[in-house]
Structures are given as C-alpha cells and as structure tokens.
Amino acid sequence: MFSPRTPAPLRSSGLGRAETRVLAWLVATGMLAGACIGFIRGANLGPEYLGVAVLKGMALGVLFAVSLGGLEQIALRRLWRRLSLGWGILARTALYAPLAVGVYLAVAAAFSPWIPWSFQRAMILPSLGIAVVGLLVGSAVLALIHLLSPRVLRNLLSGRYRRPFEEERIFLFLDLVGSTTIAEKIGHLRYHAFLHDFIDDLEDPVLECDGDVYQYVGDEVVVTWPLADARSNGRCLACHFAIVDAIGRSRSRYESAYGTVPAFRTGIHSGRVVAGEIGDQRKQIVFVGDVVNTASRIQAEAKARDKDLVVSGTLLARIDLPPGMEARPLGAVQPKGKEQAIDLFEVVR
Length: 349
What we know:
This protein is of the alpha+beta class. It has 2 domains: 17-148, no CATH class; 161-348, Nucleotide cyclase, GGDEF domain (Alpha-Beta Plaits, 2-Layer Sandwich), CATH 3.30.70. The protein is built from 12 helices and 8 strands. Strands 1, 2, 3, 4, 5, 6, 7 and 8 form an 8-stranded mixed beta sheet that branches. Strand 7 and strand 8 (342-348) form a beta hairpin. Helix 1 (17-45) packs antiparallel against helix 2, helix 4 (85-110) runs antiparallel to helix 5 and helix 5 crosses helix 6 (150-158). The longest helix has 32 residues, at 117-148.
C-alpha cells in the first residue's frame, strides 16, 4: 500500500523555473565573456585602464544578457514558437542588433569619465562585431534550446548518452479525449491547428515542472523526468494539473476557434530503462524498456476507467505527493507479458 512522503512545495508564482535557469545561464555567460573581452581591450589600452575595462565588459555582458534574455524568455517566447528555426534566428538578430548598439552606447557613456571617449570610439566597431557574432551564436543556441529543451541539448552536447546505460526514469503518457470525433467535426486542417494550439499550451507547464517532451505520437504526448533528480519529485503529478489549468485559462479561445476544448487522460509510471543515442543525420535519445510500455498501458487504463490521471503504486512509493493532492486506490492490473500485477491509483486535487 502506498504511503506518501512529506509534501514538497511547488513554485506557484513569479518567473518560471525553466526561464530563470536559462536567464541565469545567460547572465553568467555574458559576465564571463564581457570580462574576458574587457581584459583584452584593457591590456591594449594600458595597465591604468585594465580594471575599468574589465568592469565595463562585465556590465555590458550582464546588460546584454538581461535585456536580450528578458525579451527571449518573457516577452517574445510565443512569437518565436510560431517561426521556423531559420526565420527565428534571423528575426532575433534583426531585433537584438539595434538593442545591442543602444546598450553599448549607454554603457560607453556611463564609463566615459574613466575611459576617454576617443579610446572608446576606436573600440565601437570591433566590440559591435563581437556582439553581432555573439548574437548569431546565442540566437542559434536559444533556438536549439527551444527545439530540444535545455536538458536534452545539454545531454547531446556532453555526450552523456553516447554509450547506452541504465537509469531510472518517470514517463508520463498524455492522450487527447475524442480526437477522432473532433477531427471529423471540425475537419483535419482545423484539427491540426487545434492540436498545434494544445501542444503550444502544454509546453510551458512541462518546462515549469522540469519535464522533457520525449516524443509526440499523433495526439499523444510523452514526457519524461530523471527519477534520481530531486526536483522531479512530485512534479510529474503537478505537471498534469498545470496543463489542466493552462487549458482552462484558454477555454474561451478554444471554444471561439474550434467549438470545443481539449480534454485528456494521463498515465504515469517509473522504473529502469536503457537510455542511449541513436541516429547519425538526426540524433535522438531513445529509452528502451518495459517501463515505457507499462506507462502507455496505464494511460489506456485511465481511458478505460474514465479517469483523468492514473499512476502506478511503484511511482507513488518513490516520489513526494504535492500538497493538495490525494491518491485513491483503483486496484491492480495485469499488464500483458508481465508476471506481477501493478497497483493503480487515481490522483485528484
């Protein structure tokens, strides 16, 4: 029988966790890069300007990161999602380049009492050239982050899954209710737009709950978390309800555009899988094991039992039940090909 652990509080307001991490990474990178560039430029000007040049470079790096990162993570996220990868990079560069020039001129004016303007004028073109190159590289990296998610991109770059190994993971399977009926009612083109909007609305809750979208299969979404990651405790459950809330906030938009509102059922399970990269032209991290199939089966049980969220007892024994949630036993199910039955629970608020 499942016995919940002490609840772990979840963030409910303010800048999202995912956005905060990316913004902090941008600030740290900008500060370091600015300090390095300032050191090089200060060494060329003379030892009396070295310290001030480093401070100026750090100030530029932080301001670039805060201003550009703030636009990227807060104001313009939905715009970038609607653009292709290539157009997104071009749009970012066209927008951020004038902003970078303004930031540079403002910082140069602020440091003019310590660094003569005649010296700073000679540094404008080289500095802006470096800024433009940095913008192009940064725009490409940010676009890849949005395309792959920060954790997946980090794992691909580090080669963590270059060689397959076993790890414990949580898998959430989410499936739209009545998708065939909706498609027949509104037409397949409008259904594609309906599905696009639904996926767009669920991405923020998934990121906020530290999840990684593993794959989209038709109208089904698979999200995964490392079980060993303490931040994932209970967040897989919170993720389901965060998506419910996000769709609820957009109810009028869906009703106006499509005459219906998305409903979905979710199944969650955890266990050991073999994880590793496959592919050459298009690399992908793939998880292999019974856990994935069982999570899919649990989602099917949610559909068969007309429950919104069904999870395994195996999972509940390993995570924290978030505040305000209750686990209700549903009995056991015997997955095909498995010797042992799995206890199922409905989780409600």
